[in-house]
Amino acid sequence: MSKKYCIIFxxxxxEGNTASLLSVVKxxxxxxxxxxxxxxxxxxxxxxxxxxxxxxxxxDEICCVLDDxxxxxxxxxxxxxxxxxxxxxYIWSAPAPVKAVIDRLVYSGCxxxxxxxxxxxxxxxxxxxxxxxxxxxxxxxxxxxxxxxKRYCKHTNMEYIGxxxxxxxxxxxxxxxxxKKLRATxxxxxx
Length: 191
Ligand SMILES: Cc1cc2nc3c(=O)[nH]c(=O)nc-3n(C[C@H](O)[C@H](O)[C@H](O)COP(=O)(O)O)c2cc1C
Fold this sequence. Notes:
Layout: E1 4-9, H1 17-31, E2 35-40, H2 70-79, E3 82-86, H3 96-109, E4 127-134, H4 138-141, H5 143-156, E5 159-167, H6 178-189
Parallel strand pairs: 1-2, 1-3, 3-4, 4-5
Helix pairs in contact: 1-6
Residues 11, 13, 16-19, 88-92, 133-136, 141, 168, 171 line the site of flavin mononucleotide (FMN).
């Protein structure tokens, strides 16, 4: 059976660096017959988590009571084998629209705060990967974000696959080159 991928894309630059890495990865996923659900969160209306715990009343479904563009993402995440966050680094982390998704997703599927303190994580068995672009050296730009998302995976019982992160020192320089393309192709094989 073909694998399902839920891709959360979060850069305002539609043809920017993250988008060009993602396009290599998407091409590889398509080659192996994967099914992609793609969401451009800069073009979506996604509110921040309200901590209302409405999601905790239903332990059978990945769900949220807020009715906005998070709903199709939750459906795709529930069906996905792999969840991919593809976004540039903004201030050692994800841009605000992506952070909204990260927050909204977590307890929609982790039922730790309802009547049963040992409620399930409905993310168990899913895998998560990061694709990002940055301006500073990768090890100083993306280290905190990667650590955040590793802990996110531990907390949600997802398997952390890894991070593809590439740097562009200066927005005026060309970004994509053969080496980055090769690394993106190799990364896609892990997914
Ligand atoms: C608001 C803002 C914050 C940023 N913060 C960082 C940062 O903390 N570290 C870093 O390396 N680059 C930072 N950058 C640079 C972007 O990560 C970098 O230009 C990236 O390659 C852009 O990717 P994109 O073309 O996919 O949008 C920031 C850019 C913006 C606009």
